[in-house]
Amino acid sequence: MMYQLPDSLQARDAGYPGGASYNHARDRQAKLGTCTLDSNQPGLESRLKIVPPPLQPSHSLAYRIFPHRAPIVASSSMSAPGRSSRNKSTSELGGGSIGGKPGLLKVDFVKYTGWLVALLMFGAPLSPARSSTLQFKGNIDKINRHLAGQVLDFTDNHGEDRRIWSEALGERRDLYVYVPPGYDCHHRYPIILWLHGFAADETSFIKEVVQLFDAAIVAGTLPPAIVAAPDGSIKGRPSFRNAGSFYLNSKAGNFEDYIIHDVWGFLLQNFPIRPEREAHAITGVSMGGFGAYNLAFKYPQIFKVVAGFLPPLNPRWVDCHGRYMRNFDPCCWGWRSELRGWEVIGRFYGGLIVIRQKRLIDPLFGLGPPALAALSRENPIEMIDRFHIPNGLYDLCVAYGGKDQFNIDAQVESFLYLARQRGLCVSVNYDPRGRHNLRTMKRLAPWVLEWLGRRLGPFGPVPVSVPECKSESAVPEHGPNSLGPPSPP
């Protein structure tokens, strides 16, 4: 069979309401089961039916839900039963951007009016990165004037090449590092590693994201923390013509090694970071959310806290009929067993613009059987079993929307279902109106930042006996990172 129900789930679906005719809209919460309450709530039964809370002004809902077999109780949430069932391949789809670039993923094919529409929408920049770079040259001081903290520049975006050297990629790479208000090298800080999305680069951080972290720290939602935002684009600039790295080692480059060895090594060498893994958070949006889960699962000795906005956590998702653009249904679930380059995996503007599978997978792994094996190996949902991840090893958080143009809501929900079956606690925020865009990410951000604050709060800045002060101006001869050889001329 080309598509089949996972063996580990075949015997478990019978207990879900509706059987083979399971109705997604009628009983959404049944997918994730019942809730085990916090142990500090005496007198309440340990298993309750989930009751939907009222809709918040942001159009988001939040539940407290916990897998029934998990040995430790923690705060988590799930929401919005009653999302109408629909065929996403024909639904009305909107757009959005990170850093002002339409969509979080790459545009592959334009129907009907062809490239004319693309030119009108995107302004026909042959290199979005060049226009982005020129726009931000000299503006770092202006950005910092609007922040309580400060963004330190290790890029080539502001009139001086201060990029770090990546041994893994064999080239210089851009990096922004935010330090909180009152930053003092006599203290060690928790750190948040932010990974940007598809068709973006590090500039999306200073355009749209750093303000959210800065405001949360000022408000006390987050403890004072260092936030680092590396460039994860394949070509070193955002482009709709290039695939995303997904922060993996692939034929596009060793981006996993770049993050773990080059970026992380640079941060440890140049900034006072607390050593506990509980003080290390990794988070990101879209492709960056995938990277956060993928890298955290591979490097548990580094990261404890993991959060993803709109993250594709199961790229092998299809329903039991082999269809990708369908709602998640635990009674009709398959695994993708072949890669079809022209298969549509995203639709924008009512289907005017479609994104095909080959644009994401082929630049990384190709499309043959070895590519499917590589995709399976890097798939976060499959890592749960392959790495035998126990509950409590990570603090996990997912925030996603119900009208995602890439059907990432189905990917997330299949991940949550399997996580529950394995006894893993995952905190969830769901926006029933959310799409794959910047607006949805910003609506979800306050809840995620509060969640991060509760995890990082006990690991705020602590004084150190020996100051770890390193001048920002003391840039090594071959760039700020002295971990590798000088870059070629």
State the CATH architecture.
3-Layer(aba) Sandwich
| Major sheet description | 8 strands, mixed
Global shape: globular
Strand order of the largest sheet: 4-7-10-9-13-14-19-20
- Helix content bin: 25-40%
**Text of the CATH class:** Alpha Beta
* Strand content bin: 15-25%
Could you say which structural class the secondary elements and strand pairing correspond to? alpha/beta
Using only C-alpha atoms, the radius of gyration works out to 22 Å
- Examine the coordinates and then state which fold CATH places here, giving the name of the CATH topology: Rossmann fold
Mean pLDDT: 76
Amino- and carboxy-terminal Cα gap:
54 Å
- The low-confidence parts are 1-55, 61-135, 473-489
Count the beta strands.
21
Please give the count of helices. 12
Return the domain count: 1
- Give the name of the CATH superfamily: Alpha/Beta hydrolase fold, catalytic domain
Task: Jot down its keywords.
globular; single chain; Rossmann fold; alpha/beta; eight-stranded mixed sheet
At a glance:
It is built from twelve helices and 21 strands. The protein is an alpha/beta fold.
How would you describe this protein?
The chain is of the alpha/beta class. It has a single domain, classed as Alpha/Beta hydrolase fold, catalytic domain (Rossmann fold, 3-Layer(aba) Sandwich). Helices cover 27% and strands 16% of the residues. The chain has twelve helices and 21 strands. The strands form seven sheets. The chain has an eight-stranded mixed β-sheet with strand order 4-7-10-9-13-14-19-20, with helices on both faces. The longest helix is centred in the last third of the chain and has 19 residues. The protein is globular and about 60 Å long.
